[in-house]
Design brief:
binds cobalt (II) ion, 10 helices, 24% strand, 6-stranded mixed β-sheet, alpha+beta
Length: 316
Amino acid sequence: MSKLPKFQDARLLVGTETADDAAVYEISKELAIIQTVDFFTPVVDDPYTFGQIAAANALSDIYAMGGEPRLALNVAAFPSCLPPDILGDILAGGADKVMEAGAVLAGGHTIMDDEPKYGLCVTGFVHPKKVWTNNGAKQGDILILTKPLGSGILTTAEKGGMVSEEEIKKAIHTMAYLNKYACEAVQDLRVHGCTDITGFGLAGHAGEMAEGSQKTILIHSGKVPVLDGALTYASMGFVPAGAYRNREYVSAEISRNIQGQPIEDILYDPQTSGGLLISIHPGDVQEAVKRLSTLEIPGTIIGEVIEKQEKSLLLD
Ligand code: CO
Ligand code: CO
Ligand code: CO
């Protein structure tokens, strides 16, 4: 990215500078479009379920910006040696999620490739003054996480044949669940910052939010919601390579009481289609948690935003 030329446009409200979830471009005083593209290789065996998860993940970047998805296009790669029915199932899973999101699926593009890949290019609408960025967190804000962590660890352990059917079912339900519901639940409240938890894990994305906002974020590890089984499999060593990269990448200050414990692996675990990390005015937290508690997956208070310290992220 650093080798690319810098593009200047007064209408570009969010570009590449702040490592945010999507680009935001102002159309008028009342309307901005949010644009994002995301695709990846299968995380589960069932093609329809993979399609659902990949689409939920791509749509999530619109919700992380406080917007509403309106138009989606398929992005797919598929090997010629596999039956085309499988691609059909992947696309059907994705289409069902786009429909659930209330957006329109209007085409796309598939290329031949050795490994299947699927995702979406999504355009969303947002009021230009109501964009949630990942750099607006304010001192005193409370942090809410809207999905449990550990999907990377569970899918790694599943490849090792370890995970129970009940555990993987819960993980899949979490990954396929749209962030739409959490986004809509808090839309009229004082949300100062938001991002979704994906490849960099909670610690990585929270670190970006803290740095962008020029604050320090304190995460109470004991409060962080975790998928059933994830702590056990982490302690058995089923930790994806990405978690180790994330640990290295984040210049976090880790207090002694969690260092080397399974919960630490959870905080670095790369998530597929993870939840929203919402930084909200303390006066609106109670209302937010009350509303989120009525959803299929409730939100949890996991930390707070404090004055900037030497380290941008504190894990206790
Ligand atoms: Co994102
Ligand atoms: Co993304
Ligand atoms: Co954002």
